[in-house]
């Protein structure tokens, strides 16, 4: 069971569905009804209508509320909310990236679970929060778009197990 936080244009959801088997469950949490409607009415055409997949459960609302009420529910949580830990769109998103928010993510994960967080830029403070919450952390630089030589964006992968993440 995977939680995708932030529907956006639906490409992360599409990739997750393409990687998982027929019995997997993917919960998608999106704050804005408008983003859901865009996906249903326009963007779904671009990525094979992932919201129509029977493995998908769409929950509209505050993802932190969903995470906080989900103990041991997810094998992985993929967060692509706002611009990452340095929230620009909604200052309320800072709660998700705080110690309390990350501890809630850890509780929502199953044993050997994994948290992945996309960010528009680095944050040493956020990386320290992940480690303070007993995650094994690795940072991966990523291209902002295909063909770009810029690596300003990154993804943190945080594991609940003691294994080193590759």
Give structural notes.
By secondary structure, this protein is α/β, with parallel strands linked by helices. The chain is built from five helices and seven strands, in the order E-H-E-H-E-H-E-H-E-H-E-E. It has helices at 11-19, 33-41, 63-68, 99-108, 124-132, and strands at 2-5, 26-30, 56-60, 74-79, 109-119, 136-142, 153-159. Strands 3-2-1-4-5-7-6 form a seven-stranded mixed beta sheet, sandwiched between helices. The radius of gyration is 15 Å and the shape is globular. The two termini are 21 Å apart. The mean pLDDT is 90.
List the helices and strands and how they pair.
Layout: E1 2-5, H1 11-19, E2 26-30, H2 33-41, E3 56-60, H3 63-68, E4 74-79, H4 99-108, E5 109-119, H5 124-132, E6 136-142, E7 153-159
Parallel strand pairs: 1-2, 1-4, 2-3, 4-5
Antiparallel strand pairs: 5-7, 6-7
Q: Main sheet: which strands, in order across?
A: 3-2-1-4-5-7-6
How big is the Rg?
Answer: 15 Å
SS strand fraction: 25-35%
Q: Tell me the distance between the termini.
A: 21 Å
Structural class: alpha/beta
Helix count from the secondary structure assignment: 5
Identify the quaternary structure here. single chain
Order of helices and strands: EHEHEHEHEHEE
What's the mean pLDDT score? 90
Strand count, sense and barrel status of the largest sheet are: 7 strands, mixed
* Percent range of helical residues: 25-40%
